């Protein structure tokens, strides 16, 4: 699902997230960029307190050089992600060194300006970001080591397989040596193991084997600054408190969902002896990472007599193709009055896994190459409803790229990373409604009744609500590793302590410090910040409510579909076009009227479900908690 998605965040080579991951063509070389114009440029010392002078330098001197560097870096990483070879990896290291040199030079120049007395908050924001070195603070040898390590972890994740025959008798399943494995039994995570966890017959022993085997072949082998705003007095401690307050808002509904699903698992798997008051073993969730619970819908649905809200079979019956899925998403955006996809998008994107034997990073992501119209998606797409929704998520990133393309390079980014993740999901909240699926002709005989509505909210909760604690702990864990609160002798136990506390989940088999289970997740291996997803899952409901109001929707929030509403599209565009030229609270206010992240619209969306789950859990004698 969309939670695995990301975008290549190299805006402002100022902060070039040197190891953020993205995609591009396969040449295997980095094109050098001449940065001497920045070194040769004469700075008039009498104007170093002028915000207009700084803006002029950004526009006329930095922008052309920085844009060329961003393009070259994107190409190098695209080459690597679409063709994992030693030569292409070497190009990413070369590109990282070059971009780090530029970052250091820009930071040195930006520091010469004194804008402390200026009232131009936009230029003060740009200067503050320009002075931040990030990974460029490392010396060349350390930077090479960092990039090599991250590339290596990503390569392990993307190319790893386990030896497994899903059709074998459960009693014969054992951890086989993949080096002596029949080729037909070597299964990668995407799509084979993901599909097994999703569609298996729920044989607990097989699931336990796959859960452990994937972690054996993957896991063993600075990020908060963009959310703070010193000009507005919003500090790092304010941000952390805001996150905790949001979690406390959400915790009650998650507890009810956990208790309900736990009862369903107890009834389905009596031989597993699950405790009615305890945590849930991870391998029984139906997802390799326990981050989304939608794969349990076939036996947890509130009203089983109603049809499952999964239109995969109907898509296949109607001969949907991957191209049609992408064009469908584009059409939804166009009918909101948003921008169509440029021709280059259709020419250069990678929509399906190559059949030429190349090793690629299948993890879906969106890319901005900082050239007119050059935006792309890399995704190993299959024809199913999950991927249809993921496409809308990735196309949301692309629309954001297109909307802020006219901003200065330093501002060609989302208001914060959570905003970038939220855009596509906001659109998908409409696309996933029974109303919209019926309008597309994919959902037949849809009944607008209470039971169908509750089923829809429940299936959405298995995706959205179940995901929130997972998204919260990913970076809470890493913050504590970075600070030293979690020591090197407790990297795995520290992870599982968080999983138990926030998710109510325990490992599928006993774990030790010889294991490294966080490394079984792509974003850990690829060094990608994850709090963006927690934030996006909250603010997408704020965005959704604002767009629904603009569209004139009347009725419960969960029934809203903004399809073809030009007013909703105009409101969304007004925020997207800002890029990061304004602080995120300003961008938030532009679309919602509020400067605060708040879970209230999310709770409003799910309120009827919350009431129902509470009543059902009490009736069954189940209490939230573990």
From TrEMBL:
Species per Swiss-Prot/TrEMBL record: Hypsibius exemplaris (Freshwater tardigrade)
Reaction equation(s) it catalyzes: Release of a C-terminal dipeptide, oligopeptide-|-Xaa-Yaa, when Xaa is not Pro, and Yaa is neither Asp nor Glu. Thus, conversion of angiotensin I to angiotensin II, with increase in vasoconstrictor activity, but no action on angiotensin II
Family that this chain belongs to: Belongs to the peptidase M2 family.
Lineage: Eukaryota, Metazoa, Ecdysozoa, Tardigrada, Eutardigrada
SUPFAM superfamilies tied to this protein: Metalloproteases ('zincins'), catalytic domain
Glycosylation site list: 83, 101
Cofactor(s) essential for the protein: Zn(2+)
InterPro entries xrefs: Peptidase_M2
Annotated disulfide bonds: 362-380, 548-560
Residue numbers annotated as active site: 394 (proton acceptor 1), 394 (proton acceptor 2), 523 (proton donor 1), 523 (proton donor 2)
GO cellular component: plasma membrane
Endoplasmic reticulum as UniProt keyword: no
Keywords: Carboxypeptidase, Disulfide bond, Glycoprotein, Hydrolase, Metal-binding, Metalloprotease, Protease, Signal, Zinc
Molecular function terms, GO-annotated: carboxypeptidase activity; metal ion binding; metallopeptidase activity; peptidyl-dipeptidase activity
GO biological process, one term: proteolysis
Enzyme class, first EC level, given as a word: hydrolase
Cofactor note: Binds 1 zinc ion per subunit.
Protein name (database record): Angiotensin-converting enzyme
Signal peptide: 1-28
Binding site for chloride: 234, 532
Binding site for Zn(2+) 2: 393, 397, 421
